[in-house]
What we know:
This protein has 345 residues and is α/β, with parallel strands linked by helices. The protein contains 13 helices and ten strands. The protein has a single domain, classed as Aldolase class I (TIM Barrel), CATH 3.20.20.
Amino acid sequence: MDISSLSSTAKSLxxxxxxxxxxxxxxxxxxxxFDKYGIRxxxxxxxxxxxxxxxxxxxxxxxxxxxxxxxxxxQLADDGTxxxxxxxxxxxxxxxxxxxxxxxxxxFPGEKITEGLDGLRDRLLEYAGMGAKFTKWRAxxxxxxxxxxxxxxxxxxxxxxxxxxxxxxxxLVPIVEPEVLLEGDYSITENRxxxxxxxxxxxxxxxxxxxxxxxxxxxxxxxxxxxxxxxxPKPEEIAKETISTFKEVVPKEVPGVVFLSGGxxxxxxxxxxxxxNKTGGAPWELSFSYARALQQPVLEVWGGKPExxxxxxxxxxxxxxxNSLARQGLFKNEMEAQGVLNSKF
Length: 345
């Protein structure tokens, strides 16, 4: 394990103005989003779409790394260049999702466990040979009647720790993603309690597995109420609860937190990230690792039409810029942001 290299890569991924693009939708997830906008989902259409994102002029100023899917890291650009090299040639760090998705957890109705540990060491070596520099593994936690159970929480965090150790063994920075799902009718306090409990177990297990924390990143949910809860917290409350919760359980040795956007609109994800950074006082860099919050507006414009490529790339660059502003605590609102963009970038 080269701890110097791991630390350097982790810090580069949370560079001051930048965040991570999560372009790791599986074939099924990509098809779901493509179908919504009338786009035929094929291996080729997915390649064209992702290349459109990766070749957008100027994104390297705001995007530090990209999480790829297994399908994508094996694909080539039109000129035969491997997609991972397309990114690295632009100064963007290629990464790879290595889990194989969630399944129902036996004997625990309503709870999931993530698959993919079998054969992971060999897959990690292969991905490293393809140019990947970091990895990601997602675990999902549900809040509900009697959920999450202690067993499901510990099982998911244990798998995250095992994955992280294996990633570092071959020189890849692990992004650990324990996501508390926003589906449900629960308060921000309930989310805080579950998020804190999960992160406490996670970091105890990462230490037990001798994971080098300075060479990792955390990709968590923000602390907020469930989507069906009647009282919607404001960004300032989400920021306060998120920062105070993380200070209780996330070690200061972790170089950065890259928040996920699951369950939030693009506008909500940007506003909440901005409020978190404006709150300040955190020992870690506070950035983003967004999928839908960066890509939904792009898909709406592109619609699978080649003639819409330039317009779609402009939208993608704008969303990257807005989240760069939020990552610095400089975003105000969607209406005012354009003036800041024109003067600052």
